[in-house]
Amino acid sequence: MDETLVTSVDGHPLRAFSRPWDAQKPALTFVLPFGTKYDIAQPLFEQLGARFNVLTWEARMILDDPRADVDVARITPAMHVADMMSVLARFGVARSDVIGYCSGAGIALLAAQQYPSSFSRLLLVAGEYVLPRHTCARTRFQEDVDALLPLAAKSKAHASAVFSRIPQREGVASDPVRRAAALPFSRPEYLHRFGANYVQYRHVRFLEVARSIAHTALVLVGRRDEQVTVESSALIHEKLAHSRFHVDPAADHYDVCRGNTTIERRVLEFLSPPSHPPADDRHFDAASPLRTTAPTMGLK
């Protein structure tokens, strides 16, 4: 993909990436998880590039030069949305489909809420919405992150102490996608910024945000996902006015990035122009029954 430097509203430079531009193709914006490089989902971008002008950008500041003095107060959900709109403006995109992956799903929802006319369809893949504990269960990974990242956010010294206690996760080194997703945990400087970002992100009431979204949406999650829960995606789906929901029984958190997977095929099918309107926008498609928990108020 081609790199373009984009200046955001506060003057911060962003690294944006696009496929070779074709004025005859519609735009599709991929919202990356915080702290990942653009090429984590390269196989999916190759597939999407046949039909779309694919755009993405790397989240501000988290993976900047470790020696840089970063103002972590400027790493907020509001600024991530502003960055997204700056990227679209730089490429002259008036309207785009959106794929939000992991924490990128939350930023996609916020952008659609704040700028509804700028977006067409929403795909929320393996979304991390940091829903309150009383709303649904959390994974072990989410519990660990919620304990460690607020400590890492306190200071660089705290981040160094947390970093020294993080064990090497089994299988990360041999899996390029998991290795790419683990970059925020690879240096104490990144971890400090990532933690500060997380503290801001977890305050967003995503169930309330979802309730205000009128776009056609597809919510996707894998049954084997160890990072986020099926239940949290189900609750987001329930709040969306025009949503389809699919649980892939074989998919883990990273399958959408790997290429040639069933969850990738679901993404491509959803983005294909439908031959007729769906009979039921609020569709549940899964291989096994879904267990959900109540209540569903998104207050923290």
UniProtKB/TrEMBL annotation:
Pfam families referenced in this protein's UniProt entry, alphabetically: Abhydrolase_1 (PF00561)
Any one GO molecular function term: hydrolase activity
All copies of domain AB hydrolase-1, residue ranges: 80-255
Keyword Chaperone tagged: no
UniProt KW keywords: Hydrolase
Stretches assigned to coiled coil: none
Region Disordered, residue ranges: 272-300
Presence of the UniProt keyword ATP-binding in the record: no
SUPFAM superfamilies linked: alpha/beta-Hydrolases (SSF53474)
Top-level lineage group: Bacteria
Sequence ranges of Polar residues compositional bias: 290-300
Protein name: Alpha/beta hydrolase
Species this chain originates from: Pendulispora albinea
Lineage: Bacteria, Pseudomonadati, Myxococcota, Myxococcia, Myxococcales
